[in-house]
């Protein structure tokens, strides 16, 4: 009753109280929850000044930045490996793009690489290298229980000679063990079990109401077919079928290492793209400044031409006709609009460079590239470029690691076609005594009461009581339907990955 009273009452659905105007949804819809975090906003973001625009074109100073400084700043601030977003030159214009650079980060933050990604893959608790190695660590287990018995029993007549009508007793159980998996798939174990038993049974030896017993087990289990061998266990791990759905789950050391190498290739690609986009943004800003200066020259020339025609127009001289004056005026305002568009392009390009450098979008300064582009002619050898593209591309190396991953998975899958045949064995040393450690008599020294005055460990170390077990366990599905489907699945995965590599190379 107390549990039922303290539980949570189920919330009734809104449609139980439907009144036609849906007013009861208003409170639920308009209620916005905010995460309870202590994350303060970035100082540079919170302190951003009003951005530079045509209506706010005033800045405090020109910031001369070299390409080396721009790349160094981008790498220093590059915890998130930023990019310029999707850009398509076929849309016209010098370097157009779809949306501004931060759009891809805001829409898909999990798809944007960071400097933490390789370490995250390495430390993944399910697929990481340390997680795979942990499957072969020694496991220590221990359990201690104590139990009190106070139970009436339906015993009468001659049965009272063996059983008590009121059973009183205490029992204790302490179990400790070590278990180790090896790279060959074998499992070795060492376990100790200590039991204490004290009761008022009339069949116990006189003067020995309580007994202690202890034993040490040495056990092993070695697969001979399925699950055996260094190759399989390094690829699949020792617990390929120990999961929720009972299907193969390969997560061995070799596959974990391949995942780490793939993450390093992704990180290399992210750093390369960060540097490439930073340099691209730098030269785009350089071009924007040069384009602005060229358009200013055109504007000034148009202004001078308009002034000359306007002077002739005022004097009513030849060449100062109204249509020519209007045409000259139109040319000037056209070039003036071109200058304003070019200035707007400068502000946009400068903002993109700031984003790639990881600094505030506006701080009162205007960045201007200090380096000049190289004008020397460079001729590239086709064969050398082709060889380097096929051998040094990080994308191709990443895909080759995926092929290696599929090959390892296929190797492990083929092992599953074998039947399961395991050798098992156990050797046990036992000891029993009136005490666990006290007493000096060996077992049987007291004649009719062999346990009186003895201890369990003395009996165990005497080595008189030993047990052993040896055997084999066999398991084989008739038909191997799931196993054959698993092999075929990984064959198709390998073929798909190889086809993807060929298209990437093409």
What does this protein structure show overall?
- The protein has two domains: 264 residues, no CATH class; 213 residues, no CATH class.
- 42% of the residues lie in helices and 18% in strands.
- It is built from 14 helices and eight strands.
- Helix 9 packs antiparallel against helix 10 and helix 12 runs antiparallel to helix 14.
- The protein is elongated and about 145 Å long.
- About 2% of the residues have low confidence.
Topology summary:
Blueprint: H1 2-6, H2 24-30, H3 43-46, E1 61-65, H4 67-76, H5 102-107, H6 117-122, H7 129-134, E2 139-152, E3 166-181, E4 187-199, E5 210-223, H8 230-236, H9 253-315, H10 322-357, E6 365-369, H11 382-392, H12 394-415, E7 420-433, H13 456-462, E8 465-475, H14 481-505
Parallel strand pairs: 1-6
Antiparallel strand pairs: 2-3, 3-4, 4-5, 5-7, 7-8
Helix pairs in contact: 4-9, 8-12, 9-10, 9-12, 12-14
